[in-house]
Design a protein that fits this description.
Elements: H1 4-14, H2 19-32, H3 36-47, E1 60-62, E2 65-70, E3 74-80, E4 84-86, H4 91-97, E5 102-105, E6 127-132, H5 134-156, H6 168-175, H7 202-210, H8 215-230, H9 236-248, H10 264-274
Amino acid sequence: MSSAVHNLQQAICGEQQSLTQLLRQTKVIAVKLNLEDVEKWVDYELKGYPESVEPPRYREFSTAHLEVRNPVRGWDFAGNFELHLRAYQPIAEIENLSKGETLTMTLRKQVPVRDSLGGGMGSNWPQRVLIAGSEFKNILEAVKNELLQWTTELEKRGIKGEAMDFSDKEKQSASNQVFNIQKFTGILGNVQNSQVALYDYSSVQQLLVDHKIPKEDRRELEDIMDELKDAPSEKKPSLLKRGEDWIVKPRPPSSVRSPSSLSSSTVQICRRRLKMGVPR
């Protein structure tokens, strides 16, 4: 008799079904086993990650080089430009991106460019970065590996789902175990050029107000983020360190109802505003 878990394993290894279809099968199993964390992870993969949730590290990809559009010659190579970003798109969109040999992405902010004579005219021309399609193929393979690992863990615990149905014993066994699907937390990866796009303080101000963070305390983060916008590259690491220290420092409750520290989701959002934007 076939089982839900075994059928999913076969589909993962068979390479006949799209990853979108595999994730839909995974969601059915997760719902039947009442595994809310797995179900949430699948939803993020299928629908895309919201701005407030940092995608897992396996969704990281890198740019290859920078091009500028010369008004006479068209697009010209302007130098190697390795930028580490994370993909927020639904997995179906990533599947489409993976089919291209080379992809392009427009930067949110111009990057300073110098020619061989030291001139900076290219800094004012349209710019784009190139990304190898294999970067997105790597994301797809990473998700498949996560799925295969998860089904293997289920099988080891005797959780199979014969005839697409799970017994009470299987459901209980699943609820008592923590399965190692990567969590969707953490900060943006190692971005190597902070001139691409910086978020501003206004995007997190209301969150801090909602958390009853005093005005004087909020102003400290505002000053750091304002200084980051125009700081020279050698000063940015120390400013980012100050911002990180501000985010994670403990805060004693005030006389009004107030948390002792920021919630984990607010910490993630504040951290991301200190760093760079990502393609959406």
